Amino acid sequence: MNVREAAASLLGTVSERAPLSAGWPELDVDTAYAIQDEALRQRRARGETLIGVKLGLTSRAKQQRMGIDAPLLAWLTDAMVLPIGAPVPHGELIHPRAEPELVFVLGRRLAGPGVTAATALAAVDRVYGGIEVIDSRYADYRFTLPDAVADNGSSAYFSLGPVGVAPASLDLSLEAALLEVDGQIVDTATGAAVQGHPAEALALAANTLAARGLALEPGWLVLTGGMTDAVPLRPGSRLAAHFSHLGSLTLAT
Fold this sequence. Notes:
By secondary structure, this protein is an alpha+beta fold. It has 7 helices and 11 strands.
């Protein structure tokens, strides 16, 4: 299998499949990012617009649970936006899960290398609370880091909350999120769960892209990574995320 074929196979997957590495044991992270970029090219060819990036596995606890030792970066397009109140399209998903995130909207271009958390945060116009719906193409969510990168970080959909504020008005390391399912709080975390501070995740994104000759562009969204563990999304359930200062949002599942 080559890069183009791998990208097309992942984009066309509608049921669980074996990880790419099962039949491609030499698959490495650089090749996986090439697959991810080719999948983006194919998405754009069918009319999707690039609107930002997401980080995955930014929590050390989640890295340990998944058996992966580094965060990853993936692309966001307009087709991944799930408006508040719109139902989760279960018919298009395999085994979806959801997690609360802090989301940055960039006010200016952010280019590495050498970006620090402070310089990254200075490029942010607004921060929002959000919920990301993830959905790995791989059976039982079992994969290597290159597999996850090639699969665009298990991306599916995301929703933004109703409240956007200037980052300087918040202590983002202490901004809390409560994850509620069917009226019960099932998990809670603060922004410190994301690389110690979500601005560190933003700096990581800029520096990772710089190594590929790319940068974060004005107006882009950056999903900084799940604050809590991801919970399964079942049809008919009610999932909500409540943030300390960024409001609440509910997924219609």
